[in-house]
From TrEMBL:
HAMAP family documented for this protein: Chorismate_synth
Enzyme class: lyase
Cofactor binding annotation: Reduced FMN (FMNH(2)).
Function: This reaction introduces a second double bond into the aromatic ring system.
Pathway where it operates: Metabolic intermediate biosynthesis; chorismate biosynthesis; chorismate from D-erythrose 4-phosphate and phosphoenolpyruvate: step 7/7
Sequence positions that bind NADP(+): R46, K52
One Gene Ontology cellular component: cytosol
EC number: 4.2.3.5
Sites where the protein binds FMN: R123, S124, S125, N235, A236, G275, K290, P291, T292, P293, S294, R316
Alphabetized Pfam families for the sequence: Chorismate_synt
Assembly and binders: Homotetramer.
Protein name: Chorismate synthase
Name of the gene this protein is made from: aroC
Amino acid sequence: MNTFGHKFRFTTFGESHGKALGCVIDGVPAGIKIDEEFIQNEMNRRKPGQNKYATARKESDSVEILSGVFEGLTTGTPISMVIFNENQKSKDYSNVKDLFRPGHADYTYFNKYGIRDYRGGGRSSARETAARVAAGAIAKLLLKELDIEVQSGICEIDGIKAKNHDFSNVQDSEIYALDKNMEQEQKDAILKAKNSHNSVGGVALINIKNCPIGLGEPLYFKLDSQFANAMMSINAVKAIEIGDGFDAVNKKGYENNDEIRAKGFKSNHSGGILGGISNGEDIDLKVYFKPTPSIFIKQETIDIYNNEVEYELKGRHDPCVAVRGSVVAESMAALVLADMLLLNMSSKIENIKKVYDK
Ligand code: FMN
């Protein structure tokens, strides 16, 4: 199961220490202008090795488009993109060859398949998310045609919460912080964990503007369920909130309902989704990332022969995966929207008549 989406559908391939990763996207309408600089820029926002708050692994994450684009426009045929791996250090993993690293997929993969690529986690590595960002960039170019905007930023690191959500701060921040006043404290928490060979968790906020009313397919394909599916498919994501999320549980109905006026909703506690369908308000999602499992502190585990052992990791790892993970979550949100937009087009006979000029 390496495919996501229905009408706008993509499949990713590749492993952390293999030759390359990539994706094939099917269902992209013809005639979308492909801005390669934009796609690469999206890749650069996720790529590793950019500052001391991220892993030191250096990858250019240059994307090559192999098919589906002619003279700068999509042709309606599958778009395939490839990203070659450049900076693997597979020998860093020789000491964990027969061990199951705590917090990683090693134990479950091995028990499920009986074989695993231990170098960097193979397919279970978040290196795969580079391919999702490439696919997400194509989805964003489709959304751009419809003036739909998806943005993200970090609203919490190690329990230190942003008090203000200012997306204009994100692009100048090394940790994509939404609150300039909390940024230093959040950065210090990452460095403190890194210097003590540990890691921290964090929360990304995704905001979607200009989403039309009607996206989401009741009952088993609600928009919220598709966002949850998309976000929970990202490595290290442990929870997602929509709108007021967990806080809604402790409110009374009167406080939580968004009253409706002729000009629209008076509030947006629902986070832009009602009954599984977008209501035209901003969509707000919070995506919760656990602390990076790879830490450089001695831990207990077992080997593939069930011997109890102690081990210490080598390698290069993100002290807080939420930072680069926020870009992946933003891409997945764009991919869900692209799919839902295309699915929604056949919900009314008028729409179909419009296409066929009847
Ligand atoms: N885990 C690590 O141990 N080291 C890393 O450098 C690392 N980088 C990541 C980068 C991104 C962008 C994301 C989203 C996750 C990263 N992870 C990293 C998380 C692991 O891949 C993930 O926790 C692990 O595969 C187990 O899966 P699970 O946490 O979803 O259960």
